[in-house]
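Researcher: Sequence recovery benchmark, item below. Answer with residues only.
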């Protein structure tokens, strides 16, 4: 399912939902999974977007990436930071920031 194979999304037949490969949702059985090169193909096949990873919303993904990039820049500074202060600086919970960084 890696992106280098041209797969950008996967869908689960039993739930009718499609996700990004990076989605944290519980993994489905391989026999119930279909792969798609883009979100539109999954939508056309009758699958709905996952509410967790929002695969049809590129802006939401970009906002998350921007927050992570900002956190990385703050970590590169010489001033020591705590997880709590770093999370506050990028408007994320410490739990979610820790999962991404």
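Model:
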């Amino acid at each position: 399912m890696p992106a280098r194979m041209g797969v950008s999304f996967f869908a689960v037949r039993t739930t009718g939902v499609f996700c990004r490969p990076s989605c944290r949702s519980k993994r489905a059985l391989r026999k119930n999974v279909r792969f798609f090169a883009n979100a539109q193909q999954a939508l056309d096949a009758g699958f709905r977007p996952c509410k967790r990873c929002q695969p049809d919303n590129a802006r939401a993904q970009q906002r998350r990436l921007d927050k992570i990039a900002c956190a990385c820049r703050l970590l590169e500074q010489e001033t020591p930071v705590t997880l709590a202060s770093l999370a506050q600086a990028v408007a994320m919970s410490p739990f979610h920031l820790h999962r991404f960084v």
